[in-house]
Amino acid sequence: MYSAEVLDHFEHPRNGGVLSDADASAQMENPACGDTLRLMLKMSAGRIVAMRFLARGCVPVMACGSALTELVQGRTIAEARRLSREELLRAVGGLPAASQHASHLALDTLAAVLAKLNGKS
């Protein structure tokens, strides 16, 4: 049912945990299913140098949180804002139609944390 990439990110999440010295953090919840995703990030020299996530929910939410942190680290805020849903879905090897909500939650949470960085670098 799930791709090898989804299962790998779920079983071996990258960048999970709390980033205690984060420059910004945001948490969002999918009201339909109760999944939650919290993203924390640290900036230096205009780039995202560290990103961590905490997730509660289904396998795809965990996988999308993990993959998102890998995709965004090293990018500028503007580059991170341009991360597409298709790029995230490719990183997790695709998702079944019933699990597409996980990619939306991940990108919505990314947008929320980036919005908190307005004026910061």
Walk me through what this model shows.
The chain has 121 residues and is α+β, with helices and mostly antiparallel strands. The protein has a single domain (4-115), classed as Sufe protein. Chain: A, CATH 3.90.1010. The protein is 40% helix and 21% strand. The protein contains 5 helices and 3 strands, in the order αβββαααα. The protein has helices at residues 4-11, 59-72, 77-81, 85-91, 101-115, and strands at 24-29, 36-44, 47-56. A 3-stranded antiparallel sheet has the order 1-2-3, covered by helices on one side. β2 (36-44) and β3 form a beta hairpin. α1 crosses α2 and α2 crosses α5 (101-115). The radius of gyration is 13 Å and the shape is globular. The relative contact order is 0.23.
User: How many domains comprise the coordinates?
Assistant: 1
In whole angstroms, the N-to-C terminal distance is: 41 Å
The largest sheet has its strands arranged as 1-2-3
Number of strands: 3
Percentage of residues in DSSP E strands? 15-25%
Under CATH at level 1, the class stands as Alpha Beta
